[in-house]
Amino acid sequence: MEENEVITKAGELFIRYGIKSMTMDDVSRQLGMSKKTLYQYCENKKDLVKKVVNQQIEKEQNCICDLFHTEMNAIDKLMDLTKFVGAQMKDLHPSVMFDLKKYHLEAWSVWNKHKVEFIYKNIKANIEAGIKEGLYRDNMNAEIVAHFYLAMINTIIDPDYFSDETYSRIEIHTEMMRYHIRGIASGTGRNYLKEKFSQDNV
Q1: CB 177 within 8 A of CB 78
Q2: Is the dihedral of CA 54, 57, 63, 66 positive or negative?
Q3: What are phi and psi for residue 116, nearest 5 degrees?
Q4: Which of 114, 119, 124, 171 has the fewest CB atoms within 10 Å around its CB?
Q5: Closest by alpha carbon to 79, among 92, 90, 67?
Q6: Which H or E run contains 44?
Q7: 171 SS3 class
Q8: pLDDT digits 0-9 by tens, 64-112
Q9: How far apart are CA 79 and CA 126, in angstroms?
């Protein structure tokens, strides 16, 4: 088994069961290898978690770059981003982000940097593009609104919010995106949204 495959499969386990609950014995057993073999791919659990986070970030950045460099308009790009993130969150265990922040600060810092730099930059660019296209309001500050977007993302992953698991992360994120897009849409954009929401059932 190659290293990328080991990291991918370990990541799937952390996403499904949480990070803290999965020991290195559990990971090696689920991967069908000895713990000694597993340690050939990482120094320890913290190192494995960091490699998983780096791999997930690379995957997400590649997908978002591909998406945001298409010829679609700004609203369509955000709608497709919602679908992509929803697919990522589908099997996400509720404790993953809590475990990451509390027990794996270095990996958490890597993820947080990705959020405040890469995600912020792309959302800001999307807002600016939507204004030029006439689909977003032209009387807003793109930098401030992009920070609002990050604040909503923080709310979704913060274990102090929605901690009773009444709502799935997919449902919460979808409502957040509807709130975000409707809040920044111009009259033309809102008319376009009505059609998109009806077609895509989003």
Answers
A1: yes
A2: negative
A3: -75, -15
A4: 171
A5: 67
A6: none
A7: helix
A8: 999 999 999 999 999 898 888 878 877 788 789 889 999 999 999 999 9
A9: 12
